[in-house]
Amino acid sequence: MKQFLIASLIAGAMALPAAAADYTIIAPANPGGGWDQTARSMQTALQQEKIAGNVQVQNVPGAGGTIGLAQFASQSAGNPNALLVGGYVMVGAILTNKSPVSLNEVEPIARLTGEYEAIVVPAESPLKTMGDLVDALKKDPGSVSWAGGSAGGTDHIAVGLIAKAAGVDPTKINYIAFSGGGEALAAILGNQVTAGISGYGEFESQVKSGTLRLLAVSSAEKIAGVEAPTLKEGGLDVVVQNWRMVAAAPGLSAEQKAAVTADIEKMVKSASWQETLKTKGWQDTYLSGDAFKEQLAKDVSATETILKEIGLVQ
Amino acid sequence: MSDVSRTPSATSRRPDRAALAVAVFLGALAGLIFWDSSRLSAMANYSKIGPATVPFVIAWCLLGLAIWTAVAAFRNEFPARERQEIPPVAWIVAGLVLQMLFLRTVGFSVATGLLFAFTAAGFGRRKLWITIPVGILLCLAVWLIFAGLLQLSLPAGPLEHLFF
Amino acid sequence: MSTFEFLLQGIAIAMQPMNLLYALVGVTLGTAVGVLPGIGPALTVALLLPVTYRLDPAGSLIMFAGIYYGGMYGGSTTSILLNTPGESASIVTALEGNKMARKGRGGPALATAAIGSFVAGLIATIGLAFIAPFVVKVALVFGPREYFALMVLAFVTVSSAFGDSTLRGLTSLFIGFALAIVGIDQLTGQARMSFGVPDLLDGIEVTTLAVAMFAIGETLYIAAQGATGPDKVEAVKGSVWMTKQDWARSWKPWLRGTLIGFPIGAMPAGGAEIGTFLSYATEKRLTKYPEEFGEGAIEGVAGPEAANNASAAGTLVPLLTLGLPTTATAAIMLAGFQQYGLQPGPLLFATNPQLVWGLIASLLIANFMLLVLNLPLVGLWVKLLTIPKPWLYAGILLFATLGTIGANPSVFELGMLLAFGLLGYIMRILGYPIAPVVVGLILGPLAEQQLRRALAISQGDPSVLFTSPIAAVLLTIAALALIVPLILRARGRGQVLSQLAASED
Asked: What is the ipTM of this complex?
């Protein structure tokens, strides 16, 4: 027993890397999801580019990221080595969950990537264009069932905005929330619902293989390499970007903030990060400093409005 | 489970107090669900089943089970129970509580080492001056393997920081 | 090249001595970490994945396959020997397996689990290779209403885990349902039974409940017996190896378990544990030794273990053919695949045949290595029972809490662990079965959500629940499974189908 202990102590000690500038990135979601992947890609890039020594990713899943957010705000305050990955979903979750901690209580550093929503129908569907879908929606909103992610999430918000732009009462949409893990995609592929909505990346390989028909995307301009029109081109004034960001802990000094911002900027410009964006198909929507904070405030107020209109927030 | 003796004891005419307590617990649980679900707003939804529907059904069933349990308690239909010794349970629960309280401050190894020693104490090894150091060393080894080698996020305290 | 040639080529690569070694290392690591109570396959794969990155692509893929199968298998060992399943898929294994271990038959129980896992893994991996595109088509036919029907069937089968009292079994199940309400309602986003506590918004983690109820509840219960409890479990009584009768009683459950587990694992909303419940119920209905169920029937170990491992391979069907990660483990594997440049999706088999077939060949080899590793270890594992109780249970609690802390290092989670541990202990004292609580927590929300989704799609018309052919068949089976035993019971002692002919009264 003793020998085993000593041996494992030595083995463990040898395996530890030399200490350097370390980061702990909180991914407020379960392993495998978008935020987790963002955090782990950051981990790889920061380590490979020697921007930081040891980078750890810690998953604090729960409640649309608000648990991770609350824990981060309270436990990491003043810690310049702690980072939090978050995103647009958090904005909605803070409102629907009546979270006591909001994004004002952390220090947003930069928007890293963004993904646009895609509206798809099964290949067999009689609906050929976004116009067909909108017509069906206008005729009988209940007959158009939309499969997407959890209630109050980006997908739900986008459907609400589409309905509103089409002149349909947003409370009348028949939105079917699925838990993650591709359940919504399975329901669309299985022709169980009228249409599906999610980030474009989720549907990309299905669209390319022809099992799903892409009707529209929610970007402001056409996405390179994607043939489908934007919602705007279809006459619906809706732009939704499901962005992901990185935030630092509250209570940092100006130098500490600047140091973190510099590290993140170095990472974003690095070859390994750009490579990751390419392989994962993430759009580079890097935006930092005050410009990002301004955009964030705009997103928060717009989201609050539509969530109230859908009836998810009182 | 036929090894459990089913012969009623001499005092079998009195209702089974523990089973009655279970009935009360189930009833209280049902009440809690009723109370919580009644404040959920009924959302306009095409399924016609709101967020409160299923909880209500479950609460009604729990209420039914509470009554059934109470009847069974008066009829003494529960199997005879083995005698429980409380001190060992108290030791282990104390260990778990200590771990929970100290995890954040003193780190994984010390907190879990205490749990280890207290559990051993619950099973009759009461020499804490031996078991606590052994437990801490063992947990430190476990920490080094899982947190150091495998990157599992286990809280570190002063002891772990000696190695990191 | 044809399918078969690709597979042969893959196997040839995987059979190289170095790669065999990697497979062995992967299986060993996966089993070693997976065997710890509280650390399920998802965490095992997540923890060990980085280990594989240091190797060349072929070697790392092979080691990864070994870790996956090793982690899936590892959980059953502690279930059987110590009644402490660390994950939901091996709960059913504990029901009969632990009873066997207590009678000194831990050896045969472990052996039938190992061989059953091998048989199931072998068949299911071959199934993955040759009928994946077909299976996935069938799985996609399952929409919310079909899932709801499947859940109804699963509920009916749960009753086979009730033990000897319907009242106590139902109570346990409904306690599970009550716990399942906790958290944000998925379809409307409203918080239920959360009382303003943010930690409760995501509901109660199945792993936390399972580890608390089984590992901690069991430890408290054993400790509370003090000196009056059984001195020491007799580690081995009779042969450590399976007898002829054990073989005769095991092989059919292995095959049936595989048949049940593989398609359910392949369904996007299936999950390994549902397959194990169905398999256990099937074996209980079909066995010639119904009196042994609840007392350590080998069929009750062989079937669910096969179902568990078959569904591990089944999970790969939607993952590889559609890019759908359907479990936490699959989600982590998806991240792992990207490391090898493997982008799962409908075009994968066409664009990346070498890697896919390499993976499938690796899984076959890993499966074989698992058997090679575990059969000789059966004797050693059984020795686990001879560790003095203070150290054994102190170690169990160490690892049980390690798993919980590692997955979510929050004090609140540890508090829940303690609370549910006490609940499990009290339920044990009063003779309530534990498994239905966990089953209720798993199935309750699934059934509710699928029902509400089905009704939302049909705009509130309940007839859709019965009009789909698959749903109708599933509901009919469920009704028969519920009614037939009731009739038999009403007619007297007859409790099993096989006694139908013999029953006279």
From this structure: 0.88
